[in-house]
Amino acid sequence: GQTIGLARTEVAKMPKISFYHSYGKTFKKPRRPFEKERLDAELKLVGEYGLRNKRELWRVQMVLSKIRNAARTLLTLEEKDAKRMFEGQALMRRMYKYGLLNETQDKLDYVLALSPQDFLERRLQTLVFKQGLAKSIHHARVLIRQRHIRVGKQVVNIPSFMVRVDSQKHIDFALTSPFGGGRPGRVKRKSQANKGGGDEDDE
Q1: How far, CA to CA in Å, does 177 sit from each of 132, 138, 143, 167, 171?
Q2: Which listed residue, of 19, 97, 177, 182, carries a Cα 20 to 30 Å from 9's Cα?
Q3: Angle subtended by helix axes 54-75 and 36-48, to nearest 10
């Protein structure tokens, strides 16, 4: 009877978890934090694509590493394997949809050759600048954050938004934005009001 009692108390003592994480890590820090070549290469990319910090770059690198790992795992299977055919086609469709590969690059080996730059080229921030809506890559980020940019009918204020190939031609100024024919901004309205007031005083 005593052993059963002890067993019951053991079951009752569940490990106490103070905090549950319902999310995973979105980026991974480099193993060697002070490698000069890597630091220089990262800084160059951060400047070239107008990123806010290194974490934005590490996030892209983590997404890329997950995709490459998936491709590498599928390449170890037989070519006629059902899993490889099904999951491989799904992965390739995703690559085409986001413009990371084109239709002629139809082998999983092309996925392994992808670089972080391929992903950074598909960000909304980069495309707004490349399409001439912004004067610089940093200006593009400001426009997006201040809700001046829409993709289709939807205003998007996330600079890291990955643009699909079919959405790319629908990037434009938001209808509510002063740049897209909306009402003028606060400062412009104020200066117009002052001008109007000044004219009346002159009369």
Answers
A1: 17, 18, 10, 20, 14
A2: 19
A3: 110
Give the count of beta carbons closer than 10 Å to the beta carbon of residue 120. Answer: 20
Give me the count of residues in the chain: 203
**Residue 107 backbone dihedrals phi, psi, to 5 degrees:** -110, 150
Instruction: For the chain, list the strands marked E by DSSP.
Output: 149-151, 154-155, 171-173
Strand partners, 149: 173
β-bridge partners, 173: 149
Identity of residue 165 = V
In degrees and rounded to multiples of 5, residue 146 shows phi and psi of -90, 15
For the chain (length 203 residues), average pLDDT per consecutive 10? Answer: 54 63 87 95 96 96 96 94 94 95 92 96 96 95 95 95 95 91 84 73 42
CB contact at 8 A, 86 and 70 = no
Could you tell me which residues are beta bridge partners of residue 172?
Answer: 150
